[in-house]
Amino acid sequence: MNHRAWAIGIIGCAALFAAAGIGFAKRSPEQGSAAAPQAGASPITALTPVIAKAPGSSRQPEAEFSRWSVQVLKTLPTRESLRQLTDEEAHRTPLSVQDAAEELGRIAQAIHDTPAFAEEGREFYRKCAAAEELLTAVRALCFADFTRLDQRLGESEAPAVPQTVRALAAQLPSGV
Amino acid sequence: MKALSALVLVSLLAPGSECLAMSKKRTAVEGRIHFAKDIPDKQAQAMIQDLNLLRSMDIQSSDPEFVKKLKLDHVDARSMEDWLAERVQYIVGENFNIQQAAYVDRPYFSFENENQSPVLEYPTATPHSTPGSRVVTVMSNIGGAVYFAGKKAGTLYGVKIPGIGKIPLSSPRVGLLEVGEGMFITTKTLKKVGTESKAGQLIRLATLFHEARHSDGHGTSLGFFHAVCPKGHDYEGYSACDRNLNGAYTIGAQVTKALLESCSTCSEAEREALKMEYLDSASRVIQETPMSQGELDAEIQRLTDSQSVCPIYQQFPDMKDVPEVCKNPDAVTKQIEELRAHPPGTPSVDWDDAPEGRRS
C-alpha cells in the first residue's frame, strides 16, 4: 500500500468535506428551538380549532385568530438567527425554517378551514412579507399567500417588499 | 414479530415495493439502490417507503424547467427513479467511518480531466457556538468527495461498505451517500398523529435528489460543489448556495415543486411546508456574481488606458479614424463613474452535468 498517497488522500478527503461541503447536511436537533423563540405559540395554536368551531363561544374567533397570528409573527426566524448555524447546518433547510413552515401551515390551514379568518390572515401575511428582519424565503411565502388572499378578497395596499422577495414568490406554482 | 409479519406481507402485496425483512440485503428502485448494513432498519424502511411513494405518484409539473434541469425524457415517477438510481447506488449510515472504510484500490490511477478541478469556495461565516448542542447528519454525498480526494492524490480510492463489500470510487456516479438521524427529524405537522405525513416523505425525497446532483459534473463542474453565499444573502458566508442554475439546490427545488404539484392529498399545512422547502432551496441559487474589486480595477484601467492615445489625435486634428473614446471623452469618464457605482455582474449559467469517470 502506498502509505503516503493514503495519508494525503485521507487528509484531503477530510479537508474537502469540511471546506467544500459537498453535499454535507448536518443539523442540530436543538436548532429549531434555539433559533426561534417559542413565545407561547403552541397553546394558542392548540386552541385555535376550538375557538373557530365552538358554537356560542364568548370569544370573537377573528380576534383570537388575530392575537394568535401576532404571536406566530414573533416566532418566525430572522436573518440574524441564522448566524447561529454551523456551515453543515446551513446546508439544508434549518429546523427553525421548518418550524416556521409548520406555524405558517397552521395559519394557512385555519384560513382554509375558516374563511372568516381571511381578512385577519391577509393582514398577517402583509406584516410578515414586509418584515425586513425575516428570512427571504419566509417573506416570499407570506407575500405569495398575501397575494392569493388579496385576489380573493379584493385588492388592497400591497406590502413593501424588495424585488428578491417578489421574484422568489413568483416562482411558486399557482393554484396549489 | 407482528410488525415483522406485517412488513413481509406489505412487501409482498405492494407492487414495486422492495423486500425488507426477508433478505439481509435492503434495496430500493428494483435493487438499484442499496442500503448498507450499518443503517438502522427504521431509517432504511423509511427511505424505501419514500421511494415507493415516489413510484406510486402521478407526477405533474407546470414548470418546463423541471424537465430541462433534470434532463428527463418524461414527467413521470419512473424517469425520476431512473435519474436517481443513475446517481445514487449505496447509502451508508451516519456512523460510517470513512477513514476505516477507505482503501487504496489503485495507486497512480489515471483520472479523466486530470488537470481540471472545481473551484472550491471556503465558508467565511463564524457561527455563534451553542455549547452542548449536537450536530447530526442529514445526508451527504461522500462518494463525490472521496473521488475528488483520490483525483487530487492521483490514487483511486475505494470504500468497504458494510454488508456490501469493496467498492472502488471510480466516479462520483458510483453514488455513495451517507444518511443520518437528521434526515428523519421532522416537525409536528410533518409527523401527524402516530404516522408520517406525505409532505415529510416528499421533503426527504427532495433531499435525496439534491444529494444525487453531487454525483454529476466533470472537470471544473465536478461534484457541483456549493458556493459561499454572497454578502447580504440570508446565508451570507456559509457554503450553502450554488453559483450555477442547475446545481443541487435547483434540483432540490424543482423536485420539491413537482412533488408539491403532484400531491393531491396534501393538506393546506403540508403544502405550506413544501412551499417553504422549495423557497428555501430556490433562494440559494445565486443569479449573478458581481465583478470582483480586482476585475473592476482592471476594467477601469483598461478604459483609462484607452484614452491615452487621444492627445496624439488632438495634436494632429487631420488624422482619420479617430477612436470613439477620443471623440467623446466625457462618455468614458461617465462609464468609469457608472462602473464604480454599479459594478456589473456575471449571470450564472447551467454547468455541464456530464459525469466524470464511470462505475466499475
Describe the structure.
The complex is a heterodimer of chains A (176) and B (360). Chain A has helices at residues 3-20, 31-35, 41-53, 61-75, 87-90, 95-113, 118-130, 136-153, 163-170, and one strand at 26-27. Chain A is mainly α and 176 residues long. Chain A is globular. Chain B has 360 residues and is of the alpha+beta class. Chain B has 14 helices and eleven strands. Chain B has a five-stranded mixed β-sheet with strand order 1-2-3-9-6. A three-stranded antiparallel β-sheet of chain B has the order 4-7-8. Mean pLDDT of chain B is 88; it is low at 1-23. The interface between A and B is large, with 67 and 81 residues. β1 of chain A pairs antiparallel with β5 of chain B.
Helix content of chain B: 40-55%
Give the C-alpha Rg of chain A: 21 Å
Across the major sheet of chain B, the strand order is: 1-2-3-9-6
Q: Biggest interface and its residues per chain?
A: A-B, 67 and 81 residues
Largest pleated sheet of chain B: 5 strands, mixed
Helix segment count of chain B?
14
Oligomer state of the chains in this structure = heterodimer
Task: Bin the strand percentage of chain A.
Answer: under 5%
- Unreliable spans of chain B: 1-23
Shape of chain A: globular
Quick overview:
The complex is a heterodimer of chains A (176) and B (360). By secondary structure, chain A is an all-alpha fold. Chain A is 64% helix and 1% strand.
Task: Please specify the SSE layout and strand pairing.
The complex is a heterodimer of chains A (176) and B (360).
Chain A: H1 3-20, E1 26-27, H2 31-35, H3 41-53, H4 61-75, H5 87-90, H6 95-113, H7 118-130, H8 136-153, H9 163-170
Chain B: H1 2-13, E1 26-28, E2 33-35, H2 41-56, H3 64-70, H4 77-85, E3 90-92, H5 98-101, E4 102-106, E5 136-137, E6 139-141, H6 142-153, E7 156-161, E8 165-168, E9 176-179, H7 188-191, H8 198-213, H9 248-262, H10 268-282, E10 288-290, H11 293-306, H12 310-315, H13 324-327, H14 329-341, E11 345-347
Parallel strand pairs in B: 2-3, 3-9
Antiparallel strand pairs in B: 1-2, 4-7, 6-9, 7-8, 10-11
